[in-house]
Each structure stands twice: as structure tokens, then as C-alpha cells.
Design a protein that fits this description.
The protein is of the alpha/beta class. 29% of the residues lie in helices and 20% in strands. The structure holds zinc ion (2 copies).
């Protein structure tokens, strides 16, 4: 017997959490923050009071599951939480869990999360309470067998989970797409999923957008190469330092246009972690064409939150503002608003900035100020972005291939889209369950 309970996500993007209960095991798939939550505003696990905890549940900031949080005296019934990837909307609440609950992460995902926490002065997730898995290698939790499959997503080393209790097969996609740098992976994964499939829990982030063929990371590379070739000045890209696919796109663009790829220390750390298990460029002997610049504002921020050691780990690969200023057309830089002091010392005439993130972030005041400042300095802004999530056709093909006996939509604001597409869709409202005998 297996029961699936939706805790959060049937009509919401981000903050997904679904519970699976077999005869003697109870687990959660993901336990993240809502996209509009700010982890920096939540009291630290060591300080949180009962009242603050209660308030977090009442305001729906935290998923309402009895007994799982450190301040909650009620008995806990959850054995483990499986985290699909390193985006905070999938793991952001786990630090407030009671220590008895095991948390499963892929090694690289936890390293990315903890290095970022260290550099930004946030508490790390304690490794001694974490169990690690590797995509492609099965593991056991109670009477459940779990196979994590590597998926293409904007977070590095993201996984989908295939779970079985010997009688029933369940597949949870996590966040996925088929147009990133691992675009061939999804079809191969679907062929491996055990049939018949009893439950497919599938994300539908992009379904509210127009139904069009997605731009691939390779398309972005072609577009960037073309724009830079037509442009004589400094080239810059503003993207998430955790979006390793996009950083690889930027690096390849730099190579193809004969430019040196220049990153900040934070991005260098993220690339180095991803580069430990894969061929990812990071400042090192092997990739001597990747340089690191030090903006004094961003550097003092990092030292204040973290340490000089972390800041200067990549000192050997330092590039100065004078070197860039001597010939701006030889460089392709990662930038963000906090490095404005460094950019202010460079000539930005004929420069180009690729805005390479979700367009929702563009509208906040800080972003708009930075973009209009660049514009005044002579920078041409070009939007260069593609979603980290599957388009409607990829979702349709996935359903067609897997033919699940039950489909549960998650991480979407369009659950009814699935109902129209597939008659075996069960929209599980938050708090509702289905049981397969
Ligand atoms: Zn997500
Ligand atoms: Zn994600």
C-alpha cells in the first residue's frame, strides 16, 4: 500500500512538498521555501522560538506537517526527506527539521548549498545529519527503493526520483527540462522508468506561458557569439552563479569570440565545486583562460561574511581593472549590481550586457537602477535567457511515454492543463491524499 499526500505545490510554483507513505516508511519529496520567501528574514534554527515557528506555519511560509520542526513538541512521523536539487524552493526548510529526520542530498548539491551559505554568512546544513546519494545509484529508505536519475535543469546535478515498494512504482520528476546542456538525457531516463507506472508526480512550471518551442542553451550560445562579434567593447553577462549550464554557455561564447572569461570569486567557487566531478571550467591550471576579478565592495562583503581565505583562494588567477581597461574587447565578464564599483573604473563605451535570468527579477528596484546606470555608461542590454523548466510539448511527450495510472501535477499554477491532457490526472489539493492498495 502507498499513500501520496500533497503538502504544498498543487497550485504553486516553488515550495513543493509531497509525502509518500508505504507500509512502514514515511518520506517527504522536497521541502522548500515559497519563491517569495526570503531565507535571510527567517530566524536561525538555533534561535527560533515556539511563537516564531507557529507564525511561520500560520503565514504558510513553512509547510504544515505536524511534529517535524524543532520547535514543535508533537511527535514526528517522518523518517526522511529526499531533496531533488539545490534550488531553495526545494530544500530551504530542512535546517529547521528535528535532527532525527534524515535528509538525502546529492553530494555536489550539498556542496553548492553549503559553500554559498559559507560565503554569504549563513548557517550550513550539518553534514553529519545528511545522507548522500549519487544520481544513477539506487539506495534504500525503510521499505522503499529509490533510484535517483540525473536530469537536465538550471540547477547543477538535479535529480528525478523513481521509488518502489516492490508492488508500486512512483516517479517524481523534480524540476526538469530538455533544452539545456544535457538535452538528450530526459528521453534516456524515461526509457529506464519501470512499467507499469502507478503514479507520475510531474512539474508544470511553464504551462501558463505561450506554447512555443523553447530556446536551447546552444541557441543562447549562438546568439551571444553573434552579438559579441558585432560589438567592439567589453562584454558582460548577469546570470545566477548557480546556473552552471549558463556559465558554461558564457565560457564557450568567450572562447569562440577569442575573449578571456572573467568571473568574481563567488562564481569561481561555484564553478570549482561543479568542476570536481564534471568537465566544467573554473580558474585553475587546466583552465588558465578563466580569470578572477576582485571588486572592492563585493570583496569586503565576502570577507565580512566569510573569510579572507575563501576570498583569496583564486588570487593566483587574478585580473586587474588596468588589464581589462587596456583592451576591454578581449574580455567577457560575469557581473551583478554589487560589482558596480569595479565597472565604474572601466570604459563601458560600446559594451554589451546580456541579462540572463528570469525576467521577474529584472523589475526589482536594485536591478532597474543597475541596468539604467549601465545604459547611461553606454552599455547595450540584450536579454539572453531560457527557462530551467520543460515546455508543454516535453511534458506531453513525457506523459505519453510513461502512460501513468495516476498523474499528480505539482510545481505549477496550471494543474487543470494536465486534467485536459490526460484523463488519469488527479489534482491533489494541499492536504489531500490518494491511496493505492
Ligand atoms: Zn523549483
Ligand atoms: Zn529548480
Amino acid at each position: 500500500m502507498i499513500t501520496c499526500t500533497m503538502h504544498r505545490g498543487h497550485n504553486q510554483i516553488g515550495g513543493s512538498c509531497i509525502e509518500l507513505q508505504s507500509s512502514d516508511t514515511k518520506i517527504l519529496l522536497d521541502l522548500g521555501l515559497s519563491l517569495d520567501s526570503n531565507i535571510f528574514e527567517i530566524p536561525l534554527p538555533k534561535d527560533i522560538t515556539y511563537e516564531q515557528g507557529k507564525e511561520l506555519i500560520e503565514s504558510s511560509e513553512f509547510t504544515d506537517i505536524p511534529g517535524i520542526y524543532i520547535w514543535d513538541k508533537r511527535p514526528n512521523t517522518i523518517d526522511a526527506v529526499l531533496i531533488s536539487h539545490s534550488h531553495p524552493d526545494h530544500w530551504g526548510i530542512v535546517q529547521w527539521l528535528k535532527p532525527k529526520i534524515k535528509i538525502y542530498f546529492s553530494k555536489v548539491s550539498l556542496k553548492l548549498i553549503n559553500k554559498s551559505a559559507e560565503l554569504l554568512g549563513r548557517p550550513k546544513i550539518q553534514e553529519d545529519r545528511v545522507k548522500f546519494f549519487s544520481p544513477g545509484s539506487k539506495f534504500i529508505v525503510g521499505d522503499l527503493e529509490v533510484m535517483p536519475h540525473l536530469v537536465d535543469h538550471s540547477a547543477f546535478e538535479a535529480s528525478a526520483f523513481e521509488l518502489t515498494d516492490k508492488n508500486r512504482n512512483i516517479f517524481y520528476t523534480g524540476d526538469f527540462r530538455q533544452h539545456g546542456r544535457k538535452e538528450k538525457l530526459w528521453d534516456k531516463t524515461l526509457k529506464k522508468v519501470k512499467q507499469p507506472l502507478d503514479v507520475l508526480i510531474i512539474e508544470g512550471t511553464t504551462l501558463s506561458r505561450a506554447d512555443e518551442t523553447p530556446i536551447t542553451e546552444k541557441d543562447l550560445e549562438e546568439q551571444a557569439v553573434k552579438e559579441i562579434s558585432n560589438n567592439g567593447g567589453l562584454a558582460m553577462i548577469w546570470t545566477s552563479s548557480q546556473n552552471i549550464d549558463r556559465l558554461v554557455t558564457a565560457y564557450r561564447t568567450a572562447k569562440r569570440t577569442g575573449r578571456t572569461f572573467v568571473v568574481d570569486p563567488y562564481t569561481a567557487h561555484m564553478l570549482k565545486i561543479a568542476g570536481q566531478s564534471n568537465v566544467i571550467p573554473y580558474p585553475s591550471k587546466k583552465f588558465s583562460d578563466v580569470k578572477v576579478y576582485f571588486s572592492s565592495r563585493f570583496s569586503s562583503y565576502l570577507v565580512k561574511q566569510s573569510s579572507k581565505k575563501a576570498l583569496y583562494e583564486f588570487q593566483k588567477w587574478k585580473i586587474t581593472k588596468e588589464e581589462i581597461q587596456d583592451n576591454p574587447s578581449k574580455y567577457f565578464m560575469i557581473v551583478r549590481p554589487s560589482v558596480r564599483d569595479f565597472l565604474n573604473q572601466l570604459s563601458l563605451e560600446n559594451s554589451v550586457l546580456f541579462y540572463s535570468m528570469w525576467d521577474g527579477y529584472r523589475d526589482d528596484e536594485k536591478s532597474l537602477r543597475f541596468l539604467s546606470w549601465l545604459k547611461e555608461k553606454g552599455t547595450k542590454e540584450i536579454v539572453l535567457h531560457t527557462s530551467g523548466h520543460a515546455d508543454a510539448n516535453t511534458i506531453r511527450d513525457t506523459i505519453k511515454t510513461l502512460q501513468p495510472r495516476n498523474l499528480i501535477p505539482i510545481h505549477t499554477i496550471m494543474p487543470k492543463w494536465f486534467e485536459k491532457e490526460y484523463s488519469k490526472t488527479k489534482i491533489l489539493q494541499n492536504g489531500n491524499s490518494i491511496t493505492l492498495k
